[in-house]
Amino acid sequence: KLPCTRENDPIQGPDGRMHGNTCSMCEAFFQAEEEKKKKEAESRNKRQSENTTSFEELCSEYRKSRKNGQLLCTRENDPIKGPDGKIHGNTCSMCEVFL
């Protein structure tokens, strides 16, 4: 929570809503960002806890895309808990370890 004054200096935020002043607009923005991060983390945790799929099933599509025995993975940040119990940066990097 930001220590905002009650100064009345209305400003329209990037969300299209009117805020009492710049500080209260920033406070609303930070709160929305925090809620968004919380929801994303909950979604990621739910996906990981529901993941009982084997490496073979998860990695079948990547098996075809190997070049010279290696996978060419992006650096996409989409953490996933693999069947090995470890957290991997994304599905491709997890499959790279397996394949």
Q: Could you characterize what this model shows?
A:
This is Serine protease inhibitor Kazal-type 5-like. Residues 59-96 form the Kazal-like domain. It is found in: Secreted. The chain has 99 residues and is mainly alpha-helical. It has 2 domains: 8-50, Wheat Germ Agglutinin (Isolectin 2), domain 1 (2-Layer Sandwich); 53-99, Wheat Germ Agglutinin (Isolectin 2), domain 1 (2-Layer Sandwich). Helix content is 46%, strand content 8%. It contains 3 helices and 4 strands; from the N terminus they run ββααββα. The chain has helices spanning 22-50, 55-63, 91-98, and strands at residues 11-12, 18-19, 80-81, 87-88. A two-stranded antiparallel sheet has the order 1-2. β3 (80-81) and β4 (87-88) form a beta hairpin. α2 (55-63) packs across α3 (91-98). The longest helix has 29 residues, at 22-50. The relative contact order is 0.12. The mean pLDDT is 83.
